[in-house]
Amino acid sequence: MRKSSITILLALCAMPLFAQISVKWGTIDTRYPVEKDANIKTVSVNSATAWRGERVNFQLLVTNGASDMQVHYTFSDLKCGKSIIPAANVVGGFVQPVITDKFTGCGLHDVEANGCNLSADRITNDATTLLDANTSRGLWLTVQVPADIKPGSYTGSVTVTAAGKSIKRNYTIKVLSRTLPEPSQWRFHLDFWQNPYAVARVHNVELWSPKHFELLRPYMQKLASAGQKVITATLTHKPWNGQTYDAFGSMVTWVRKADGTWWYDFTIFDKWVEFMMDCGIDKEITCFSMIPWRLAFRYYDQATDSHKEMNCAPGEDAYAEFWGGMLKEFAAHLKEKGWFEKTYISMDERSLEQMQAAIKVIKDYAPGMKISMAGLYHPEIEADITDYCLDIETYKSYTPELIARRRSEGKISTYYTCCSAEYPNLFTFTDPADAEFIALEALARDLDGYLRWAYNSWTVEPEKDSRFTAWPAGDTYVIYPYSVSSIRWERLVQGIQQFEKYKILMDEANSRGDKSKVKRLENILKRVDITRIANESEKMTKDFRDALNRL
Asked: Which uninterrupted H or E stretch holds 489?
């Protein structure tokens, strides 16, 4: 017996380190914790169904039970006979943790008091990672199915290599004969506010320099690939009073000349808009804000060679005079550039009285200029708001009749989430399925899309710590420096794709007079119930995807 025990012990000691590496299929609904022995779900998913042109996601769980080691992965082509989805169409990487906290609602809070937990969110682009002993990592895959590929079942593999040994795991995508349009053609009105100032700070480059624009491009192309419709522009300095770590400056330079007249320089505004359009985002330009969160407007005073502030409020003569001259010149400039019809003067979360006063100035000095607003519902000004976005706490103010009438007038009706809603949301501690549910909720409410105030308003060290002093962790951004994706972002895009697929199927059924199919689609949508999201977001999103793919 003693000899047998020694033999077993020696055999175990002689086992290669790789024998302690586990690679198994997991689920995209789980943020796998770092700790090896954590109580985690063991759901295994290695197959998916997709339309041509759709992006689908998978996740493996890689666990290291031995000593620290470098772990590497490679993706293969996916094949169906002679037809191939190239390995270049498969992107992803190890899911790295960031520091998160818990839901706190809005307002300043003690970051440390709300916890210092780790949450798997950042999908790195590195093919190799150091996996510490007794730890795990998710390995995320996003597969872009070509729009022109032959339908069929495509099988590919992921190979994980460590300590000189490799493990291969196969997976399959069933590609249907239907085709999803290019993201630029998607109907979902996606409006994520961009922060170019954060990119300049994180990359340590001069604001608006050629290098800055070069670095901005992959971020904005990623945004365009999700169907983004809106360019975020600023007309004033700190329109949100510096609520983000990197405050927004003004893309328009206001100059009061020595003789008391005004001059406006639109050079930066033009460069930014032209750049964004070149990245593929060109449907709408939202310009913030005639009603900033602090009613002080910065300008350069030529007589004193210094910056000064104009303090005035909507409804005052000084306010109308200050904004009136600028709006006249801005409107003329936009018409010259061919941008007037797609430009909106934009405000967010302002009172009815302030909005009414600002709208009057816009009508008086820039007739025909469109207006957008994100905030509460004010029926008194609804007719003046071409793009109206309501907070998820109040979006029930949209009645079916109101939405239908606005749509017939070419107006946009959307909703947004921010620090006030625990779910569905996009915090770093949020369940992944909640991000996908966001688009389904827009569909269930017959809304045109979704707005989020922060695409990349990063914290001090966004790759390490997603907490911020005023909002729940992750509220200020959904992607990471160097255009690194996140679980939240990939699942959000997955939901938008389901929105598009549903619209296509419903249009087709209606055009053919297929009442049976219309009824089936309506019944599928009835299962999207926000009152069940706290416990059933995974089931609802999966059931919705599966049901559409069966039609």
From this structure: helix 487-511
Counted residue by residue, the chain has a size of 551
Which 8-state DSSP code applies to residue 207?
T
Evaluate if residue 279 carries a pLDDT over 80: yes
**Letter for the amino acid at 298?**
R
- What is the chain's mean pLDDT, rounded? 94
Instruction: Measure the CA–CA gap between 535 and 262, rounded to whole angstroms.
Output: 57
- Tell me how far apart the terminal alpha carbons of the chain are, to the nearest angstrom: 63
Strands 412-416, 449-452: pairing is parallel
Token pair, residue 13, equals 């000691």
Q: Enumerate helices (H) and strands (E) in the chain, giving the number of each.
A: 11, 25
Give the E-state strand segments of 358-482 in sequence order.
Answer: 370-375, 387-391, 412-416, 449-452
Superfamily covering domain 15-179: Immunoglobulins (2.60.40.10)
In the predicted structure, residue 15 carries a pLDDT above the cut 70: no
Residue 462, pLDDT > 80, answer yes
Residue that has been written with the tokens 């006063």 in this structure? 357
- The C-alpha atoms of residue 282 and residue 342 are separated, in whole angstroms, by 8
183-550 is classed CATH 1.10.357 = no
Model pLDDT, residue 9: 34
User: What are the boundaries of each domain within the chain?
Assistant: 15-179, 183-550
